[in-house]
Specification:
Layout: H1 2-6, H2 10-14, H3 17-26, E1 29-32, E2 37-40, H4 43-51, E3 56-57, H5 63-69, H6 72-77, H7 79-84, H8 96-105, H9 110-131, E4 136-138, H10 139-144, H11 146-156, H12 163-173, H13 184-210, H14 216-222, E5 224-225, E6 228-229, H15 232-245, H16 248-263, H17 265-273, H18 278-289, E7 294-299, E8 303-305, E9 308-310, E10 315-319, H19 320-323, H20 358-374, E11 378-381, E12 388-390, E13 394-396, E14 400-404
Parallel strand pairs: 2-10
Antiparallel strand pairs: 1-2, 3-7, 4-14, 5-6, 7-10, 8-9, 11-14, 12-13
Helix pairs in contact: 9-11, 9-20, 12-13, 13-14, 13-15, 16-20, 18-20
Bound molecules: protoporphyrin IX containing FE.
Protoporphyrin IX containing FE (HEM) binds near residues 50, 241, 250 and 353.
């Protein structure tokens, strides 16, 4: 089993892409015993699965894992966690999902995002101004981590004192997702953090019902389409998803992209010399080093994926990062080309569940990369080899760099 031998090895963590390519060529829908699921790697198959909610469902994509791996007694202890992942945006299929998304379009309008642009710029300027005079930056700590945390804080209208608390909750809640087979002790810790966060959000929602403000919670409370509204549980579930989905993803993408710009000095220079390339550059960063490697679905009917029979109830992992390097879709897929067009990558998913925060992530990326490159003549790595964290997201644990001015 190609994948099962690789999983957990240092070589896989450091550079999974040669393994992905081999899977695509030799066994594009491989059964993993370690992960207990099918692993799909070719672009067309991954996109088709994401698109087809009738055959590949989001129902039970998280709770099904709990049911497969835990005893009845353990499940009883994990009831709040199981309950949380039984409803809401990421756990349902159309038409329930369509209904929630329609209401959320009222909230995530381009104007909501555009309003944040000046604040994103001001925040990046402040962070870089504090660090660059010394000519050094630890990218993760100084920029890639605080930027999305700050943006989420702005979105939710959080007081500054709450920001570290939210960041800590978010890190704890995703702990159980780090491996495709959940660990019971990690689930218990995630559950406690989730309960704390939900209690905090519940109070904030009650507050916004009384005194609406200029933030997404107030917009979710007020959202209405043809008399339909989001329930309290839907607002809670979506808020948790935004808090989790909008934070570590962007941190990892920004840090990995800066690493790749350093590894490809000619592309770094190209973008510095021609800032108008920023839009295609951000898309190429998403394709080449998007952080979200593994998406997940439950097979809803006996069917065939890329020539392989899969059975109702099976789990499938859709390797977005492998699909984004599939030579059948992308010419010269391992070259990092900031002007690449077309670039129909799957880094934000595809189909009904495509990322709700994609515009916001693009905004953060383009402001951060443009400002960083404009503020120095050259970026270089400082220190030894990069240590890669690779749970359900992939990115460098730390990235100390030198910024020559
Ligand atoms: C680089 C940054 C990001 C990446 C790579 C990313 C990736 C993804 C992916 C792959 C999905 C689809 C999951 C699936 O098919 O099951 C998704 C969904 C989602 N993302 Fe993002 N995301 C990013 C940033 C954000 C931000 C900034 C927000 C919000 C502020 C956000 C909120 C969401 C939500 C709410 C969903 C669920 C959509 C649904 O199920 O309908 N994401 N994201």
């Amino acid at each position: 089993m190609l994948l099962d031998h690789a999983i957990g090895s240092p070589a896989f963590r450091e550079d999974p892409f040669p393994f992905y390519r081999e899977l695509q060529e030799r066994d594009p829908v491989q059964r993993s015993q370690v992960w207990n699921c099918w692993v799909v790697t070719r672009y067309d198959a991954v996109r088709d699965c994401l698109q087809d909610a009738k055959r590949f469902s989001n129902l039970g994509r998280v709770t099904g894992l709990f049911h497969r791996h835990f005893s009845a007694e353990q499940l009883a202890t994990l009831r709040p966690l199981v309950e949380h992942y039984s409803h809401g945006l990421i756990n349902v299929d159309p038409p329930d999902h369509t209904r929630i998304r329609r209401l959320l379009h009222e909230v995530f309008r381009p104007s909501t995002i555009a309003r944040l642009a000046d604040r994103v710029r001001a925040f990046v300027d402040r962070r870089l101004a504090a660090r660059l005079p010394a000519g050094r930056l630890e990218v993760v700590h100084d920029l890639a981590h605080p930027l999305p945390v700050q943006v989420i804080a702005e979105l939710f209208g959080l007081a500054q004192v709450d920001v570290p608390r939210f960041a800590a909750w978010s890190a704890s809640i995703v702990e159980f997702m780090q491996t495709p087979q959940p660990d019971y002790a990690a689930c218990l810790r995630s559950q406690q953090a989730l309960l704390d966060l939900r209690a905090h959000l519940r109070a904030a929602i009650a507050d916004r019902r009384q005194k609406p403000r200029d933030d997404v919670l107030s917009l979710m409370v007020a959202a209405s389409v043809d008399g339909d509204r989001l329930t309290e549980e839907e607002i809670l579930g979506t808020s948790v998803t935004i808090l989790l989905g909008g934070h570590e993803t962007t941190t990892r993408l920004l840090a990995t992209s800066i690493y790749e710009l350093i590894r490809h000095p000619e592309q770094q220079e190209r973008l510095r010399a021609d800032p108008a390339l920023i839009d295609t550059a951000v898309e190429e960063c998403l394709r080449y080093c998007g952080p979200f490697h593994r998406d997940q679905r439950v097979v809803a009917v006996d069917t065939v994926v890329d020539g392989r029979a899969v059975a109702r109830g099976d789990f499938i992992l859709l390797l977005l990062a492998a699909a984004n390097r599939d030579p059948r879709q992308f010419p010269d897929p391992d070259s990092f080309d900031l002007g690449r067009r077309p670039n129909r990558h799957l880094a934000f998913g595809f189909g009904p569940h495509i990322c709700l925060g994609a515009h916001l992530a693009r905004l953060e990326m383009s402001v951060a990369l443009r400002t960083l490159l404009a503020s120095c003549r050259r970026l270089r790595l400082e220190g030894g080899p990069v240590h890669w964290e690779f749970g359900f997201l992939r990115g460098p644990a730390q990235l100390p760099i030198v910024c020559d001015r």
